[in-house]
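User: Second chain of the day. Same drill as before.
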Amino acid sequence: MSDTPHISREDLESKFRALQADIQGRATDKKQSLIAAGSAIATVVVLLAYVFGRRSGRRRSGRVEFRRF
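Assistant: Same format as last time:
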C-alpha cells in the first residue's frame, strides 16, 4: 500500500522535545536582550525626568515672595 515507514510514539516525542528545546533557547536569548533594552530605556527616562525637573525648578525658583506681617 504505502512505502512510508511507520511513525512511532518515540519518534514524535523526540521531535517535540527537540522543537521545545530550540524554542526555549531562543526565548532565553530574547529575554536577555529585552531585559537589557528595558533597563536602558528606564535609565534614559529617569535621566530625562531629572533634567526636565531641574529646568522647571530653576524657572520657578525666582518667584519666591516674602510677606511681612
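The longest helix spans residues 9-60.

User: Great, on to the next one.
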